[in-house]
Amino acid sequence: MRRLGRAGVALGVAIALGAVCAGDAARLAPPAVAQPSFTPGAPGVGDRYLPEAGNGGYDVHHYDLQLRYDPGSGQLDGHEVITAVATQNLSRFDLDFGRLAISALTVNGTGARWSKAGQELVITPSAGLRTGRRFSVDVRYAGQPGTGPDAKTVDTGFIRSRTGAVAVDEPTGAEDWYPVNDHPRDKASYTFAITVPAGVTAVANGVLEGTQATGNNETTWRWHEDAPMASYLATVAIGRYRVQTGPGNLFIAVADTLPPAKVDAVLARTPEIVQFLAGMFGPFPFDSLGGIVPAEPRITYALETQTRPVYGSTFFDRDNATTVLAHELTHQWFGDSVSLHDWRDIWLNEGFATYGQWMWDEHTGQGSMRDHFEEYYGKTDVWDPPPGDPGPDKLFAPSVYVRGAMTLQALRMTVGDATFFRILRAWADGHRYGTGTTSEFIDLAARLGGGSVRGLLNTWLYSPGRPPHP
Ligand code: ARG
Ligand code: ZN
Question: Which of 51, 122, 272, 290 is spaced 20 to 30 Å from 197 by Cα?
Answer without folding.
Answer: 290
